[in-house]
Amino acid sequence: MAGRSRDMATMRDVAQRAGVSLATVSFAINKTKPVAPSTRERIEAAMLELNYKPNAIARALASRRTRIIALLFPVLEHNLDGTALKFFTSAAAEAQRRGYNLILWPSGTDAARIDQLVHSGLIDGVVVMEVYLHDERVERLRELGIPFTLIGRTAEPRGISYVDVNFEGLVATAMHHLRELGHRRIGIVFGEGGDPLISEYGPVVRTRDAYLAAIADTEDEPLMFSCDQSSAAGRRLVPDILRQAPDISALLLLNEHAASGIVSGLRAQGIGVPESVSVVGLGSSIEVAEAIDPQISLYESPSEELGRRGVEDLIDVLEGTRSAPGASLVDCVFVDFGSIAPAHS
Amino acid sequence: MAGRSRDMATMRDVAQRAGVSLATVSFAINKTKPVAPSTRERIEAAMLELNYKPNAIARALASRRTRIIALLFPVLEHNLDGTALKFFTSAAAEAQRRGYNLILWPSGTDAARIDQLVHSGLIDGVVVMEVYLHDERVERLRELGIPFTLIGRTAEPRGISYVDVNFEGLVATAMHHLRELGHRRIGIVFGEGGDPLISEYGPVVRTRDAYLAAIADTEDEPLMFSCDQSSAAGRRLVPDILRQAPDISALLLLNEHAASGIVSGLRAQGIGVPESVSVVGLGSSIEVAEAIDPQISLYESPSEELGRRGVEDLIDVLEGTRSAPGASLVDCVFVDFGSIAPAHS
After folding, report:
1. Residues 326-345 (B) with a CB less than 8 A from some CB of A
2. A68-164+303-329 has which CATH code?
3. Where does the HTH lacI-type domain lie (chains A, B) (predicted)?
């Protein structure tokens, strides 16, 4: 405690300097009772003069709680997009609202940097983003015994707190919508690109399985495609799609960055959207869909809600207001930009 | 220190359990000397069993340094975009590389939440994003005497550590490029949308002033437009542009989200890019420019470098390896997607 005895001001010093009681300083700092604005100003001025750093650290040592949580995000595995930005900002806002601080912690998909984070003793809990079906990070967090929640979920998420998109419901709804309009040749486009684990990435696998399940109920043939996550790759994919399925009448896109290229690739072949082919984005963001010409109807990812609830659930666990792990699936909301039309018979 | 005496394991407990010397535990934890992998494993196992939380908190209290820095970002003032995402991820990666933790701290453009952050005693310093010319947050950080750096800069940044885009050079270069190709009717489109302070936002003001300066050197007339930050708004703006300047031959876009709408609005009027009008993005992101049809050449924002250097400069200040405030302007890099052509004479 050398630092403290050396030159760290105490709350008592602040009270003296401000000419108020110790209790008043405590009320002002901890916001436990209202304090007149002019008094608060005097106290804050005294705190500044004395370079008084009140509470977080000492309180953390005393309570063994730091009120810091970490948001784990993967570096470079695949393109982070507008969805990730909304996770970051909504998670940070929710943490702040609850009186917590959110640390952004880059990690690989492996567990390498998790021990460093947890062993620092700095954090009370972890929110994991971009979850894989078999995720080393989740295994390691479990072993370390630190509270955590997932935005996403593993293959067997029982006993783990998570909030995820309802991908199964999303695909079933989208397929139903298209079939009602007479579509039978419905393809789906996934994203690739730099991530060898993409086939282990929850959203991709769950969407693919749900698509195959919806197809299996019919006599139709699955039409699955994938390309890099870029507009140029989407454009290059179009001839392949048309070669394999010249009579394709609808496309589901789980590759936001390729969407504009696919639409312009279709146009380049004289195929209009939605006159000849209906197109719909799955779990994408409205900003991207809105910027495509023509605009693409989409099932919008509930990104802000996911970020917010990931943090909310974790804090509930930390504060003991939740006993069982929360397991929530959130629906995407359909936004109609007119890119879906009845099939030609 | 009740928590500690109650049940917090000590480093000595860990040494005993792992069957190694206290010094070896210290070497392993503080990475001051190499420790054999098998020994390290034994020590880590002992730390887990004893739930030993080593160092960050106690060290912070002793050293009065937490090795935590905050990235201040504004909520909802105007659309955060791909640029902001890159600030977040590159800033977090750089902090981690230097052994620091980065907290994401949402704040308004006012100083309201800064005192809360600084008074918590949790952070060593602050990186401020999305800086306004007269920025209350910067004023308040200065008053509080906490080290900070800016990504962006105020009107009078002398004495402040900052890293910013070289907007002045960017506009001069772009204007020169277009004039060399014979363009004389060069317009510029700014973004609006929800932010009453947009006219105080550094990138907008500096770009506008540089545009006016470049125009003032000639006999040309300034052609300035603005619209909301969306594709739909860009599309709606096109008729206004053509009414005001039917002979316009080039457009600079400082409104990334409107770019696709402007291009498709031009096409809807039978005006081809670049055959009739050249278009170039200023400080935008390659992902957006690449997704437009046709793709738009751009001066790409050096977002990753800005995020990384904002953190780097701050840590240099904190560690005393930098004496004077760093003041850096970073150039955008031109990426040619073929949307610029010679002017028709």
Report:
1. none
2. 3.40.50.2300
3. 9-63
Out of A166-180, B22-36, B122-136, which region has the weakest mean confidence (pLDDT)?
Answer: B22-36
- Chain A's closest residue to B75, CA to CA, is A89
Can you tell me the distance from the alpha carbon of B98 to that of B103, in angstroms, rounded to the nearest whole number? 15
Is A47's Cβ below 8 Å from some Cβ in B? yes
B345–chain A nearest CA distance, Å: 30
Give the model confidence (pLDDT) of A247-277 as tens digits: 999 999 999 889 999 999 999 999 999 999 9
Domain pair B68-164+303-330 / B167-301, same fold? yes
Q: Is A256 helix (H, G, I), strand (E, B) or coil?
A: helix
Enter the tokens of residue A242: 């048309």
CATH 3.40.50.2300: does it fit domain A167-302?
yes
- Reply yes or no on whether the pLDDT at B144 is more than 80: yes
- The CATH label, of 1.10.260, 3.30.420, 1.20.120, 3.30.200, for the domain at B2-51 is 1.10.260
B145: closest chain A residue by CA: A48
Contact criterion met (CB below 8 Å) for A251 and A190:
no
- HSE (CB half, 13 Å, CA atoms) of A222? 14
Structure tokens at A180: 């009602």
Give the number of residues written for chain B.
345
Q: Does B230 touch chain A (CB under 8 A)?
A: yes
Query: Closest partner residue to A119 among B47, B259, B291, by Cβ?
Result: B47
Helices (H), chain B: 2-7, 11-18, 22-30, 37-49, 56-63, 82-97, 112-119, 136-144, 167-180, 202-216, 231-244, 259-268, 286-291, 303-318
Does A268 contact B at CB distance below 8 Å?
Answer: no
Residues of B in contact with A93 (CB under 8 A): 75, 106
Could you give the count of Cα atoms lying within 13 Å of B174 in the half-sphere of its Cβ?
37
Q: How far apart are CA A252 and CA A277, in angstroms?
A: 11
The complex's ipTM works out to 0.79
